[in-house]
Design a protein that fits this description.
The chain is built from 8 helices and 14 strands. It is α+β, with helices and mostly antiparallel strands.
Length: 249
């Protein structure tokens, strides 16, 4: 964030490995030189660009940073302190530099860019069903969200589930641990529009279901099939919330 806020292209370039891979929906940029060209064009069009780190979710070798961007114009929209672009950057490091950078957005801040009209309703329904199912105390209801060969990865807790049956076994353990758990969607996450975009969300987890109790914040990224079932899931967590709820020290 500090590098981009410097508006110094050499400083921005130094954050990335020479062979960095950047994905932003249909856009793919390979190499720090091309990232630098992209940054230069973007900052020339938006000389007052400013950003701030609004959150950080850990996920094993990856991290998801929440970045709010202001003083920028995209299409006909101006983004300000009161109405920032909210983006989610999934980053993987190598020797202290960013080696992969995959970009997602909060579709509520950039709806025309992230959601086509024919997908918006289905994606919103899936996220609502996800929260309901993982709050239901019904392992079969949770497993029903997933395709037969789906995979679920939770590297923070070293949980890997391959196939719907394995995910149902995980759900059984989940509800044994937290039979009163409440899961609610806080913010949706969407990839820039393409034929089969990834989606996801930031979810609030209250282990005992009490609205005044501790809250774990979990971000998930989901891939789906043509029937709207989840084929792949990856989880990330706000580290401080894990500590507050006693899930980590």
């Amino acid at each position: 964030v500090e590098a981009w806020n410097s508006h110094d292209i050499d400083v921005i370039r130094s954050v990335y490995t020479d062979d960095v891979e950047h994905h932003d929906g249909q856009l793919e940029i390979i190499g720090a030189d091309r990232v630098a060209v992209m940054a230069n064009r973007l900052l020339e069009r938006n000389p007052d660009w400013d950003g701030r780190l609004a959150g950080l979710y850990i996920g094993g070798a990856e991290a998801m940073g929440v970045w709010e961007i202001v003083d920028i114009r995209v299409g006909a929209n101006d983004y300000t302190d009161d109405h920032p672009i909210v983006e989610y950057d999934v980053l993987e490091l190598r020797d202290g530099q960013i080696a992969t950078w995959t970009l997602y957005y909060d579709p509520e801040t950039m709806p025309a860019f992230t959601l086509s009209s024919d997908r918006a309703e289905a994606e919103a329904a899936l996220l609502a069903d996800y929260a309901t199912a993982w709050s239901s105390d019904d392992p079969a209801a949770a497993a029903a969200l997933y395709a037969t060969g789906a995979s679920r990865s939770d590297p923070v807790f070293e949980q890997e589930s391959e196939g719907r049956d394995a995910i149902e076994r995980h759900a059984t353990e989940w509800f044994d641990w937290y039979p009163e758990v409440s899961v609610e969607l806080v913010h949706p996450i969407a990839e820039a529009s393409r034929e089969e975009p990834e989606l996801g969300g930031v979810f609030s987890i209250r282990p005992d279901g009490d609205a005044d109790s501790c809250e774990v914040l979990m971000a998930v990224l989901l891939e789906t099939d043509e029937d709207g079932r989840i084929t792949a899931e990856r989880a990330y967590y706000d580290a401080e919330s894990l500590i507050v709820c006693g899930w980590a020290v």
